[in-house]
């Protein structure tokens, strides 16, 4: 089997298992009365504080300082998307020295990640980069195909097993895709972990779910169990159900988020030409609801209620956090054509912003 053919088989398996592809003949959001009352309003009316101006200053400073030495470097203006009236920056200098608080990014991945992680074999470049500046990062493994409720318990157990460090909390939970609602459920259900958490960040988080999940089936995600080298299992079989908009919005309606924590939102809002070719199908399907999507989630469904909005990122859903093209360049060249993104700089900017923001009084 040729390289191109093997690449196509690998991507077909990932696409079938991890992409939420809806049937073209069915509405993505079917008629239903099984929903809490909803209102699509400007973020400011949902308690969201817009600090994109300051985050742009921080991110641009990081990119300028680290420069092309970082993988997948992009100029700042190309790394972020300007949406609406973005606030001006503060004009304050950006501290690019050693971290004072030594924040630790604990990342919870999305659906299916544990199945293809051995194949992906992601480099530890983000961890290596962050440690130069007194930060750190680690991946918190959860069931690849289980529900958010199931994974919330795993998050709780993993955090409680970590050494309790002296001083102010240092853990910054970063939830990518389904990892974000997994984290939110853990924060609500297990108050004992909150004193250990400095902040929570949603990165392309499926906070409000995805319409693509409405017609998706769990067995489609379960195909990832047969991916070469996969060691994942079906878990409780609730992964897809947890991503349906009715599930996520009903959960949000019934579970107010703890007010003693700080929440931040990074939203993927790619220009259409920044969507990889393999993701165009799901991007186009989701565009039947709203073309302002990252191929998996609509931009307004990625914001945590009451959070601080940090940025709209010019990257599709995979480019933000899944470095396929770095470890499989042939697949990147043929299918995952827009996968390059300066993730190291982005994570550093997130931690620097959070550290600066935590030093200010809570609102």
From TrEMBL:
Q: Secretion signal: which residues? A: 1-24
Q: PROSITE patterns per the record?
A: PROKAR_LIPOPROTEIN
Instruction: Name the UniProt key words of this record, in alphabetical order.
Output: Signal
Keyword Signal present in the record's keywords: the answer is yes
**Protein's UniProt name:** Alpha/beta hydrolase
**Which domain of life does the protein's organism represent?**
Bacteria
* Gene3D superfamilies (alphabetical): alpha/beta hydrolase
């Amino acid at each position: 089997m040729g390289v191109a053919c093997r690449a196509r088989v690998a991507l077909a398996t990932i696409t079938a298992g991890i992409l939420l592809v809806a049937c073209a003949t069915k509405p993505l959001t079917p008629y239903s009365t099984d929903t809490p009352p909803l209102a699509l309003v400007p973020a400011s009316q949902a308690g969201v504080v817009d600090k994109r101006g300051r985050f742009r200053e921080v991110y641009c400073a990081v990119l300028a300082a680290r420069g092309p030495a970082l993988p997948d470097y992009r100029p700042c203006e190309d790394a972020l998307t300007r949406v609406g009236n973005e606030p001006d920056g503060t004009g304050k200098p950006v501290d690019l020295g050693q971290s004072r608080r030594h924040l630790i990014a604990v990342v919870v991945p999305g659906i299916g990640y544990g199945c293809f992680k051995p194949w992906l074999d992601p480099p530890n470049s983000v961890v290596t980069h962050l440690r130069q500046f007194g930060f750190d990062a680690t991946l918190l493994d959860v069931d690849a195909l289980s529900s958010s409720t199931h994974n919330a318990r795993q998050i709780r157990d993993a955090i409680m097993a970590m050494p309790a460090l002296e001083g102010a909390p240092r853990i910054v939970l970063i939830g990518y895709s389904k990892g974000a609602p997994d984290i939110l459920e853990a924060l609500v259900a297990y108050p004992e972990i909150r004193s250990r958490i400095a902040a929570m960040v949603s990165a392309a988080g499926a906070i409000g779910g995805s319409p693509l999940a409405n017609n998706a089936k769990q067995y489609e995600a379960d195909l990832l169990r047969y991916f070469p080298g996969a060691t994942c299992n079906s878990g409780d079989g609730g992964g897809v159900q947890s991503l349906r908009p009715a599930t996520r919005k009903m959960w949000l309606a019934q579970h107010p988020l703890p007010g003693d924590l700080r929440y931040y939102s990074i939203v993927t809002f790619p220009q259409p030409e920044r969507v990889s070719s393999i993701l165009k199908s799901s991007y186009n399907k989701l565009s039947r609801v709203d073309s302002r999507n990252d191929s998996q989630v609509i931009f307004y469904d990625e914001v945590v209620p009451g959070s601080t909005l940090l940025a709209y990122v010019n990257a599709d859903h995979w480019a933000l956090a899944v470095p396929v093209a770095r470890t499989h360049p042939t697949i990147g060249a043929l299918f995952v054509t827009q996968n390059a993104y300066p993730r190291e700089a982005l994570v550093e900017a997130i931690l620097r912003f959070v550290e600066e923001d935590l030093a200010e009084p809570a609102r």
